[in-house]
Protein 1
Amino acid sequence: MLKKKQHRQWFEFSSVMVLGLAVFLLASLWQSHVQAQPVAISSAEPQSISWFQGLVLGLVQGLTEFIPISSTAHMKVIPVLLGWGDPGVAMAAVIQLGSIVAVLGYFWQDLQQVFGGAWQAWRTKDFEKQEWKIFVGIALGTMPILIAGAMIKLFVPNFDESPLRSLPAIAIASIVMAVLLAIAESTKNHTRQFNQLTLKDGILMGAAQMLAIIPGVSRSGSTMTAGLFMNLDRATAARFSFLLGIPAITIAGLVELQSMISDDLGTISPLTLVVSLVSSVIFSYLAIAWLIKFLQNHKTWVFVWYRLGFGMIVLAYTLLR
């Protein structure tokens, strides 16, 4: 009875969370329509951010970074639709740092086990050890997104202005990923567990992770979808997705942190910085814990429908405005 009650509570929490995000987005669109102000999605200059805006941005980042609905899309769409404009590099770095702290904290024991086991395997030359396979899989799986990111930095200096980062592109990416997640959910058995992970899983999920460079795809969404296509059970796909994402998220956060220090840190008050960071840490941690628990007993259809709805709303907005 207690177990059923806990499951019901988790389901109720997930329903409220998804409904809340949907209502928040609809309210944002309505407000933007009423004000009838032209909105630029990428050209706006960074705005002065209040502590309340920092709290909301931390919440949005935390809930969407690890849940497969694309944090980049939500962080790009919601502030602009609310009339807040571009939060700026500094704010992006702060809330990204919060997500890094949360994922490291949540998976600290897993990381100790993987790195400790990999070190022991290296010393004993036991390269069939499970921890060694996971470690090498994470290392190799991180390379595609790092290489793609470096290539974009070097050869596409105006990538932020690219059509791939426009509202229509975000909407289409969200819809396409919803369809792929639906196919993966409905056509595979999802029976492989964490202790059955192989080096191949890390490489293939790493290739899928590279797609997250496109806003609207979602890093966790692309890797979890790949994991489901490889017959991983849902909780294992999410757990390995988070472990695989730690190096990429951390490196991206450090790059943004460097930009924050050199650019517009002075435009954000200390209170806003603290509130944003704490908000991001708390909601990122809660999102990780909730998602892994949720996927132990539920399928991913709630994310499929949310992503379809999000993409269709954003696409309709861009066509009708």
Protein 2
Amino acid sequence: MPLEGRGRLKRPNAMTQARSPQTLARTLLIDADDTLWEGSIYYLECSHRFRVYMATFGCDPDEALRELRAAELEAVPDFGYGPPGFCHGLEVACQRLLTRISRPAGPDELAAARAFGEPMLEAPMVLLPDVRPTLQALRPSSWLLLLTKGSPTVQRGKIERSALAPLFDTIRIEQEKDAAVYHRLMDEFGLDPENSWMIGNSPRSDINAANAAGLRAIHIPHAATWMGEPEEIQQPARVATLHRFADLPAFFGVTSQAGKQ
């Protein structure tokens, strides 16, 4: 599916008279990683392998994980969120840890560290339970916007492998999900903030940022949420918490219509 402008997946007739935020009961902005499909569990597995690898040099495994997390966050401005920054962080963390114990960090050691992250470039696509039938049930009465962040190339690949794109009215891939992005989307599509909900697992970028822009939010926690995302929910009165994505139709009083698009 080709990109339409930066971070936009082209969808024919994304806003028609029949389907627009103004003609349907509600607008749902939906996160992707750890909301629609598994994501962070693969990073955790790669991080564990890195910890074990650094322990073979005599480094403390917990310190190795802390250093990796710091290096990954530092990489965001240059690499964005996702596998490229994670791979870079593995290399940087390895170099820092080996330097700290006065051990040379040669090309072989750095390449081995970086290699722990390379499977993330083509991570398995595993949809979370009941995602497809839930979207099918919501679609007849809801205008659906898939909102994700990270490398456009990586995120576009995930979306294509998920085969969920036809269930969404439009798709956006952003470098960040903050209040400014939500304000821009509200203006672009003429969203009614009292009838528009951001749905996701991240308190920081899905819940608090959406609330700051005036949107309502639905928090669906995931046990493996990325370490850079947890925050306290700042406006709990404007946030509902559900245990599963499949709980959304009941929350909105929608009768299951699985199979309809």
Protein 3
Amino acid sequence: MIKIETERLFLYPISNEDMQRVIDDEKDLEMRKAYSEMLQGCLDNPEDRVWFAAWNMELKEQPKAIVGDLCFKGITDDGMVEIGYGLKEGCCGNGYMTEAVRAITEWAIAQNKVSRVEAETDPDNLPSKRILANVGFIPTGEAGEEGPRFVLEKKIDVCGKGYRMIKLLGHGKGGYSYLADRNGQKVVLKQIHHEPCDYYSFGNKIQAEKNDYERITNAGIRVPKMLAIDEENERIVKEYVDGKTIFDMILEGTSVEQFLPQARTMALKAFNVGLNIDYFPTNFVIQDGMLWYVDYECNDYMEEWNFDNWGIRYWSRTPEFEEYLKSGTS
């Protein structure tokens, strides 16, 4: 079980059974509804339940003394989590919530799936605003159902230079890719991960990225330029190609047939140097009518994995594409 320790508190997500007990004991109808939605989120998303569960704030020196709770209200596809929090009656004025919000947001920002943490609060709730300000949240200039919204941005250093994460672009078998910003320039920042993969084995991932980039560029395949590589922290910065992916175009019902000649040209260039690239449509972006391969992954050529034998199966609403939508694996 996840347990975050602060100076005075333990923070941890409670079980589904404990959440049901909270619901049964809650007298306030709005809070009961909120806790019920959290529990349903846990049941619907067991692998991501920490982002839906209620988290207890337990005093370290008084076990089982709960002074408040927190939650994240789920997680979006682009990596945003929204924090909510509340103290038990009689527990205000001790700094517990600032301590808890700082610790849990630091934990959340450190998770690869998360690109930023947001919050909203009643415009007249000055203590809540102070908590957010003390932790480092800044106003977004937007308002939600409860009031003005605030954001705590994820920042990552690559080779000593700081980048601000805008959103999570995707999560593959090799890493997490974010749309990031540095001094007004949008880039893609990839953080290598070492999560297990049932169908693929890796050696040195960061070295593989570097080697694959060189092989692909030498083949003449159109890919974004690698701008920086931080081998110690396993991070890569590359150009951002702004456009829709082939996958998104297929999903919205747009034919991508006009881009097949460009895909086959890339496939031929790869074949000529003994390579396959990953032809899955999430790896291709259209910008000004030009097809870009935005991943760096490539492998020694095998006929069964070339474009016409494998990739083309996912470049329209085929049974394979529909199965991917259901299972999430290609």
